[in-house]
Design a protein that fits this description.
The complex is a heterotrimer of chains A (222), B (249) and C (59). The longest helix of chain A is centred in the middle third of the chain and has 30 residues, at 91-120. In chain A, helix 1 crosses helix 6 (91-120), helix 3 runs parallel beside helix 7 (125-152) and helix 6 crosses helix 10 (192-221). Chain A has one domain (2-221). Chain A has 222 residues and is an all-alpha fold. In chain A, 86% of the residues lie in helices and 0% in strands. By secondary structure, chain B is mostly helical. Chain B has helices spanning 11-42, 58-85, 88-119, 128-149, 153-179, 202-234, 239-248. Chain B is globular and about 60 Å long. The radius of gyration of chain C is 23 Å and the shape is rod-shaped. Chain C has helices at residues 2-9, 14-58. Classes of the chains: A mainly alpha (222), B mainly alpha (249), C mainly alpha (59). At the B-C interface, helix 2, helix 3, helix 6 and helix 7 of B face helix 2 of C.
Amino acid sequence: MFKAFRCIVMRDLTLAMRRRTDVLTTLFFFIIVVSLFPLGAGTEKMILQKIAPGVAWVAALLASMLALERLFASDFADGTLEQLLLTPQPLFVLVLGKIFAHWLLTGLPLVLIAPLVGLQYYLPGDAVITMMLALLIGTPVLSLIGAIGAALTLGLRGGGILLSLLILPLYIPVMVYGAGVVSASAMGTDLQAYFSILSGFLILALVLSPIATAAALRISVE
Amino acid sequence: MSINWFKYSSPATFYPLAGKMVPFFGWLAAILMAGGLYWGFFETPDRLSDQKEYYRIIYIHVGAAWMSMWLYIVMAAWALAGLVFQTRLSFMIAKAIAPTGAIATFLALWTGAFWGKTSWGTWWDWDPRMTSELILLFLYMGYMALQSAIDDPRRADRAAALLALVGLVCVPIIFWSINCPDPNECAALHQTSNPGGGNMEPNILIAMLVTAFAFWMYSFAAILMRVRNIILERERHTTWVNELLEEKG
Amino acid sequence: MSAISDFFHAGGYGFYIWASYGAAILLMAGEIAIIKQQYRTILKRLSRMARMNASEEDE
């Protein structure tokens, strides 16, 4: 079972490395969105520090949303997905592998680029580290929840817009606490509760999302 | 005695049954609404110091808000029933509930805005309840959008049903996260927007409950009417629909 | 007369109250009207289709 998981992850990573622009597009989308806010909202230090956590999280939501469309689309187009559905390995393990690879390619780069946001928005060092930690726990949840939507909207016209309509409301809890913990760290309050909740979301999503995604794939491909 | 529980789970038998139930629920809703509003408007003494005349909005606001939440649960329950028992009718009922639920949600937001303007002096506030209703509206919209984006009715039904269930799991978490964005202070955050601050005039309470019940009955009527439409549309190739059409001429 | 106008005036809150009730009536009556309209359209279309099928069988 673990072998199947690793096989899927390696395959998706190899495929992505052959087409590196897809990964870079997501990353640059994130950077551009984050850089646009100061131009619109003014460059006052006080304001920027206040809106930084929210902006970073909204940009992360949109960036991961943007990449989700491709999660199953190319496999669906060339028939690989149907083969995956027919394999004897449990589908949720394969799905989990695909989601993990997807997170490595779209979520992890956002975590690593977060210090740049910290610089742009005059965040103190503690807050930047907190933001990276929060993104590290939070972005896998985004990929996990988003995978359900990606599976449901597989192969539909206008799937991308529809996907955001379905999934963005479900991202709210992650965003609330992900942004909340950064604000709290800037104010110097206790962060333990935030991280417990975020980790709780991650565990819940890890358990439920692959099953739901597998069911959605069966509905969509059948 | 053996009861055939699934007798009315076939669209062909449910269609006439729904037709018979619609007038019943419709009239019940109308009578209850008229009675409740009469009681609330004319038999309730205006001797409330903290609630001025704008409390009259309560008779539609509370009913709509309750229905908006209740209908989402019912919709998800029918979706689950459809996925478990593989009954077409369950999916049709779930599909029929969504627009009525969305209308109730919109109405709750609309009347809430007018209520807010009178009592808080603002049309919109990021109050947990209002925000939750807004998110609920988004969820209804997502369900309907997915349902209508898929051409194959079988896939549309099941995909939307799964989405409704995912939504049902997420709804408590979403509402809770809106309610206490700061987990360290959550216990201190209690909603104080109860009408009348807990000591509500009993006459208003009774009238409000009656009108809320009327909203429930109205939802039954509207949903059953819509289910009949969906059944006709979906079952148009079957013989019983053709026989029905011949009867109608 | 003044009793009626007082009632609609509602102590200065008339606008808010009747805007709420107006929206409720509009939405609910509109919903029912749309469903009934749909019902008629479906019946019309289905009976037209049935007639088309019948005439095809005759030929």
